[in-house]
Structures are given as structure tokens and as C-alpha cells.
Design brief:
Elements lengths: L1 E2 L24 E4 L16 E4 L2 E3 L8 E8 L7 E13 L4 E6 L3 E6 L4 E7 L9 H5 L11 E4 L5 H9 L4 E6 L2 H10 L2 H4 L8 E6 L13 E6 L2 E2 L2 E2 L6 H8 L2 E12 L3 H10 L11 H9 L4 E5 L8 E5 L5 H7 L2 H4 L6 E2 L5
Parallel strand pairs: 10-11, 10-13, 11-12, 13-16
Antiparallel strand pairs: 1-9, 2-3, 4-5, 5-6, 6-7, 7-8, 8-9, 14-15, 16-18, 17-18, 17-19
């Protein structure tokens, strides 16, 4: 997920118990995903400088809300142009405050008061997001044949990518929020993934608590993608070694986990950077990776997304793959990024 609006200076004020609240902004804001210094949320820069001139609404919770803005894109040499940003739907479920925002180029799924983006869809046919969702599509190249689970399906951004690259993939997507799944079917094309591809691949959606499912030993996977957040932070259960050992037990031989570990807490960063002497040990800034190192000693790799792509930490279990071979097996967009993985070096 990506942090879209600053909680202290939001472009859009929304009361999930009713309808999108009316607001107006006279000053220019820089619309970007704030660096993950106060939460474990993914963050990355979105190249638009926005001036909010008016926000209008109808009293229907599902009405379209139009936000008039001026945007400057780096691709057009920052020439300002007026664009509309629309709220397509806003609804409160048992688990989330669901907000779907539409722009001329993208559609975004926001959840909870942190305004984090959990799914992203480009309308021009562009599939790559230049964020951590892309990285998940590299996992099938280095795991055995078998089903792949996704814990934290959201709107299905990563699922779209994985089935596009690997059309025979048997993907099982877990999401606790049934209302969110229905919205993803309506607005993010999730239902298209639930139809079998010509190569036999398909997404099977499972509505339920993915971590509670660990008690079912009959479900085994070649790989598990883990993208579980609440309130902008990695789930507390994922700070427990026992949870990771249970997840390890859900893998077939030579199976792997790939995990979105989010960012870092500001207090953690201050303390850990003092003791971090090498970039090879930068992973100690992330508490989730530190727990994973305990659960998978000597069998964990990590990478950090570039600042312009979120600066999120990712983790991969199992021995470090041959990066040259891995690079050759994935699309060109991913071939350079997989070379950035490195083993978690022992601290000295």
C-alpha cells in the first residue's frame, strides 16, 4: 500500500460513517506519499503538484465527487494542466473505510484513516506500477510448481500482474473484507481474474482471515505473498516469530515467502542507524525483517525499494537465488530489480 494523503494536511476530508465531507483548499499542496517515518506503510512520490479549488458532492454515499486540481507531470516538463479527481464510492465495512478515487489516468483504492493506497490501476493499459506490487510478479520464477497464495489481496493489483506474467498460475487470494472484494470486482476488474485464462491460470478468492487459516494443514503452497497491514502498519501478528514458523509450515518443499515489510518507525530508524555501519545491514532498520531473520536464520534475503518507488522493505525466504538466472526468467521491467536482492548479513 502507498500513503497518499498526509494525515495532518489531507487534500480530502472524509467521514466514513456517512458521505465524503465537503472541503476546500486554497493553497497548493504537493501530492506525494510521505516517507514511512511514522508508520510501516509503503510510500512513494506521485509526480503531481495539486491545487484543490473545490470539492462538491451529492448526498448519496455512492455519488461521484469531483475535485478540480492543477497537475504538473514530469513527463510533460511540469506544464500545469487541470484535471479532475473523483470519489467513485465511499463505504465503511467492518474492517475498512473504503474509498475509491478516480483520476483521468489512474484509479486508486484507499483504506482507513491513514489514506494509504492499497491498489492502483492505470487506465492506459500500463501494467507496471513502479512500486512493490511489481516485485511480487517475480516470485513464480524461483519457486516449484504449485499454487501461490496471496495474503492481503486488496483490490488485486499484484494479482493482475502475476497472472499477466504467469498466465498458468493457480493463485489463491485471501482477503478478510467481503465488501472490499465486491468493490474490487466492480472497480478494479477483479472478477476478470476469477475466469480461467487460456493457459489455465485463475484467481480463487477466499474471504477470511488468512492467518487463522494457518490451522488448516491441508493447504500447502509453492509460494506465499504477504501484504498484510492495518492502520498503516504491518499486522502485530507478523512481529511474532511463531507466526512466521506457522507460515513456513504452509509451504511445500523449496517453497518461499515474499513479504512487504513496509517502512520503518521513526524512533527505530534513529536508534538503528546509529549502529548500522554498512548498507548490507540496513535491514536492521525494519522490525519485521528482524523477526523474519529469527524465524529463517541464514535463509532470508531483503531489498529496499528506491526512494522514488516507495522505499519499502521486502523480504524473501529461502536461499538467495542465482540472480543472473532469475533476471533472465522475468520480464525486462523486473530483470534489473531482482539483482538488488541481497542476503541478510549477520550483524557483527
Amino acid at each position: 500500500m502507498i500513503s497518499l494523503f498526509s494525515a495532518t494536511n489531507p487534500l480530502l476530508t472524509w467521514s466514513p460513517s456517512s458521505t465524503p465531507a465537503r472541503t476546500s483548499c486554497s493553497q497548493t499542496h504537493r501530492w506525494f506519499c510521505t516517507s514511512s517515518r511514522t508508520t510501516n506503510a509503503l510510500s512513494f512520490h506521485i509526480p503531481f503538484s495539486l491545487t484543490c479549488s473545490r470539492l462538491t458532492q451529492k448526498p448519496n454515499a455512492h455519488a461521484t465527487t469531483t475535485l478540480q486540481v492543477k497537475g504538473s507531470s514530469s513527463d510533460s516538463k511540469k506544464e500545469e494542466q487541470e484535471e479532475e479527481y473523483k470519489v467513485l464510492t465511499a463505504v465503511k465495512s467492518q474492517y475498512n473505510d473504503i474509498l475509491i478515487v478516480d483520476t483521468p489516468k489512474t484509479r486508486m483504492l484507499l483504506l482507513d484513516s491513514t489514506h494509504n493506497v492499497h491498489s492502483l490501476l492505470y487506465k492506459d493499459g500500463q501494467k507496471w506500477t513502479r512500486s512493490y506490487w511489481d516485485e511480487f510478479a517475480s516470485l513464480p520464477a524461483i519457486i516449484p510448481q504449485g499454487p501461490v497464495a496471496m495474503f492481503g489481496l486488496g483490490g488485486g493489483t499484484a494479482a493482475h500482474l502475476m497472472l499477466d506474467v504467469w498466465p498458468s498460475l493457480q493463485l489463491e487470494g485471501w482477503e478478510i473484507d467481503e465488501i472490499l472484494i465486491n468493490k474490487a470486482r466492480d472497480y478494479f476488474g477483479l472478477s476478470d481474474l476469477e475466469k480461467q485464462t487460456q493457459a489455465g491460470g485463475i484467481l480463487h478468492v477466499v474471504v477470511g482471515d488468512a492467518l487463522c487459516s494457518l490451522e488448516d494443514d491441508s493447504r500447502k503452497y509453492a509460494g506465499i505473498v504477504i501484504d498484510l497491514f492495518y492502520g498503516g502498519k504491518v499486522l502485530p501478528q507478523l512481529q511474532d516469530v511463531a507466526t512466521w514458523l506457522e507460515l513456513k509450515g504452509r509451504l511445500i518443499p523449496n517453497g518461499r515467502l515474499m513479504v512487504n515489510c513496509g517502512g520503518i518507525e521513526e524512533s527505530d530508524a534513529i536508534n538503528e542507524r546509529i549502529s548500522t555501519k554498512s548498507v548490507d545491514n540496513a535491514w536492521v532498520e525494519n522490525p519485521t525483517i528482524k523477526v523474519l531473520c529469527e524465524a529463517f536464520p541464514g535463509q532470508l534475503s531483503w531489498k529496499r525499494m528506491p526512494e522514488g518507488e516507495g522505499a519499502n522493505y521486502l523480504a524473501l525466504t529461502g536461499p538467495l537465488p542465482d540472480l543472473t538466472s532469475w533476471s533472465a526468467m522475468v520480464p525486462h521491467h523486473l530483470s534489473a530489480t531482482v539483482s538488488k536482492w541481497r542476503p541478510c548479513s549477520p550483524l557483527t
